[in-house]
Design goal:
single chain; alpha/beta; 8-stranded mixed sheet; 6-stranded mixed sheet
Length: 275
């Protein structure tokens, strides 16, 4: 029998349906059964914890949360931070200044919370991936008048830009290399996600597994996009979704069903519950 002790789950395009908010019933049933057999369930998301509480409530068995592309790891049961790699403060301030000047839609993840500058709220919420996720942004975000001032002295995990023109993207990447350098990733076409250098889901999961005494042969991981690649390459039981990118399918060892058809649940049933 497989000795899978940890299941790591990307959210958008992987665990969640196409509304970016609902977990298909097959996934919930399989993950709850796996938890009953002793496997720990870990969210591994580009999102901040504040934007994941609804998903956590649906699952009911989340033990850990790898957040902001791996910039932080939260022990959900103990409400304790296990790992953090925040962005350099001056690089964060200058990147935000540029994004405000350019009028681009962005949000900032900081210490598990989500921040959107008040005068950009409608632009950002209007850029959400679905109406359902727009409601999550409105309900679960902070809207300070001056976002840079609100973030001073705090551990900023990630800047998420919803849509960025290619010319601006090149300009911003040049700036972040000069100031940071910072890491940049993408989870869907047109977006950009900035974190501290060296931050990715794979590194964070390895740090978590070091604390838990687990190796890659005991980890099951699911993903679909560019910010999942390091995680998929590291875990021995790694699965790309049928709807995933070619890069994700190349990085993973297996391919499962699509997010819409409960591909996570399919793989958990086949390889963990009924091997």
């Amino acid at each position: 029998m497989n000795d899978i002790r940890l299941i790591c789950l990307d959210m958008d395009g992987t665990l969640l349906d196409d509304d970016h908010a609902t977990v298909p019933p097959r996934n919930i049933a399989a993950l709850r059964a796996a938890a009953e057999q002793g496997a720990s369930v870990a969210i591994a998301s580009g999102r901040a914890w504040a934007l994941l509480r609804g998903v956590d409530a649906q699952l009911g068995v989340t033990r850990y949360a790898v957040l902001s592309n791996g910039a932080a790891v939260l022990d959900v049961a103990k409400n304790q931070w296990l790992y953090r790699r925040p962005m350099p403060e001056e690089a964060r301030r200058e990147a935000i200044r540029k994004l405000l000047d350019w009028g681009l839609p962005f949000e900032v993840y900081c210490e598990g919370e989500n921040y959107i500058q008040q005068d950009r709220m409608e632009l950002v919420v209007g850029s959400a991936l679905s109406p359902e996720f727009a409601q999550v942004l409105r309900a679960c975000s902070h809207f300070p008048e001056d976002i840079n001032a609100a973030l001073d002295g705090k551990a900023v995990e990630k800047i998420h830009i919803f849509h960025i023109p290619e010319a601006r993207k090149r300009e911003l990447l040049a700036l972040t290399d000069e100031l940071g350098p910072l890491a940049a990733a993408s989870s869907y076409e047109g977006n950009l996600e900035l974190t501290a250098l060296g931050v990715n889901k794979g590194t964070a999961i390895q740090a978590l597994c070091a604390q838990l005494g687990l190796g890659p042969d005991q980890v099951m991981a699911f993903g679909d996009a560019g910010n999942d690649l390091e995680m998929l390459r590291w875990a021995n039981w790694s699965f790309a979704m049928a709807n995933g990118s070619p890069e994700a399918k190349e990085a993973a060892r297996y391919v499962t069903g699509s997010n819409k058809e409960g591909g996570v649940g399919m793989a958990v049933e086949q390889y963990l519950l009924n091997p």
